[in-house]
Amino acid sequence: MVTAKVWVLKKHFEGFPKPSDFEMKQVALANLKDGELLLESVFLSVDPYMRPYSKRDMKEGDVMIGTQVARIVESKNPAFAVGTFVVANRGWRTHFISDGKDLNLLPAGWPESLPKSLALGTVGMPGLTAYVGLFEICKMKPGETVLVNAAAGAVGSVVGQLAKIGGCKVVGCAGSDSKVAYLKNIGFDEAFNYKTVASLDEALRKASPDGYDCFFDNVGGEFASIAINHMKKFGRIAVCGAISQYNDSVPQKGPYIQIPMIFNELSMKGFIVSSWHNHREEGVKALLKWVLEGKLKYHEQVTERFENMPAAFIGMLKGENLGKAVVKV
Ligand SMILES: NC(=O)C1=CN([C@@H]2O[C@H](COP(=O)(O)OP(=O)(O)OC[C@H]3O[C@@H](n4cnc5c(N)ncnc54)[C@H](OP(=O)(O)O)[C@@H]3O)[C@@H](O)[C@H]2O)C=CC1
Ligand SMILES: CCCCCC(=O)/C=C/[C@H]1[C@H](O)CC(=O)[C@@H]1CCCCCCC(=O)O
């Protein structure tokens, strides 16, 4: 019999998550029935959505939500061979049982040399978010200027590089000087540290005096309220995330966006990438191709050991990650 380790939400987060909000437990797994598989998590993802979705969907004592790359270690299902790697959505667990219906194989053509953890990042849900947000929501066109915040993270770093691949000028901001240096290194035309500039308004104007056609917003709050005043006529805003607001106990107040939206005839659309599943196959294939061609660079912030899941999650929310934050079990 296998005993899985799991992390549960012990106490709903109040403000910023803290280690005592989590509890690690042991769960004995049953023996496999015909048609079932035993899997071990190899890499687990920590993502910003876990903060707002825990409040909306979870109760105390539930296993933390999340996805993993897992390896099949035992199989009583002829469709799945032992040793196969899959992407699953089974939460913060070291081991779990599946009937195979909820598993996704890694994309076709995945070379042995490529880290499998990328299926949780650049060639997974965050990469696809960048792809859908830019091409379908912003409807980015060559020659345009694209702005992205949280630019050195999992989604933002792909947004900037896809914008360059698509023939755009790209401006990004991030929360440390080393992240800004990384952005320049992966091809951003302009980048600044939003925590240290004297004025966000000035920094946005300096980076693109003519304004922005597309704004890929991962952050919301104050940054978005200022950036909206820098949009060009008929600009498009993809509302992807609002991480600056996820830990608020008291909702932030305006400024309000109607006047700049009307004057510049802007379009603003929120989206959830999973609703765009009809673009998944095409998007993942394109992302994998660009990675293999060296046109799409990646960085991962790998935290070792399952025991450090809460620390990796809290660290990501604090901005300690460069690129995609994952945990290697
Ligand atoms: N709509 C959708 O379908 C999806 C939306 N998302 C959203 O995209 C955004 C980015 O996600 P992801 O790429 O996975 O995460 P990241 O890898 O970008 O990690 C989060 C980053 O957010 C930044 N951050 C944290 N707090 C603040 C703050 N108060 N103000 C500004 N920046 C902050 C930090 O970077 P820094 O050092 O720069 O501050 C941190 O590294 C999130 O808002 C997420 O919810 C993600 C996936 C799908
Ligand atoms: C105001 C909240 C904004 C959150 C934006 C965000 O980060 C959304 C992420 C989703 C992404 O589009 C696809 C996903 O998988 C994320 C949502 C995951 C929901 C988990 C549901 C619970 C479960 O897995 O059991």
Can you offer a commentary on this structure?
With 329 residues, the protein is an alpha/beta fold. It has 2 domains: 3-121 and 299-328, Medium-chain alcohol dehydrogenases, catalytic domain (Quinone Oxidoreductase, Chain A, domain 1), CATH 3.90.180.10; 125-274, Rossmann fold (3-Layer(aba) Sandwich). It has 9 helices and 15 strands. The protein has helices at 50-57, 125-137, 154-165, 177-185, 200-207, 221-227, 258-263, 280-293, 309-318, and strands at residues 3-9, 22-28, 37-45, 68-75, 85-88, 95-98, 104-105, 145-148, 169-174, 190-193, 212-217, 231-239, 267-270, 300-304, 324-328. The strands form 3 sheets. Strands 3, 4, 5, 6, 7, 14 and 15 form a 7-stranded mixed sheet that branches. It has a 6-stranded parallel sheet with strand order 10-9-8-11-12-13. A two-stranded antiparallel ribbon has the order 1-2. Strand 12, helix 7 and strand 13 form a beta-alpha-beta unit. Helix 2 (125-137) packs across helix 3 (154-165) and helix 2 (125-137) crosses helix 8. The longest helix is centred in the C-terminal third of the chain and has 14 residues, at 280-293. It is globular and about 65 Å long. It starts with a strand and ends with a strand. The mean pLDDT is 98. Bound molecules: NADPH dihydro-nicotinamide-adenine-dinucleotide phosphate and the ligand CCCCCC(=O)/C=C/[C@H]1[C@H](O)CC(=O)[C@@H]1CCCCCCC(=O)O.
Outline the secondary-structure elements.
Blueprint: E1 3-9, E2 22-28, E3 37-45, H1 50-57, E4 68-75, E5 85-88, E6 95-98, E7 104-105, H2 125-137, E8 145-148, H3 154-165, E9 169-174, H4 177-185, E10 190-193, H5 200-207, E11 212-217, H6 221-227, E12 231-239, H7 258-263, E13 267-270, H8 280-293, E14 300-304, H9 309-318, E15 324-328
Parallel strand pairs: 8-9, 8-11, 9-10, 11-12, 12-13, 14-15
Antiparallel strand pairs: 1-2, 3-4, 3-6, 3-15, 4-5, 5-7
Helix pairs in contact: 2-3, 2-8
Organism: Gallus gallus (Chicken)
Family: Belongs to the NADP-dependent oxidoreductase L4BD family.
Protein name: Prostaglandin reductase 1
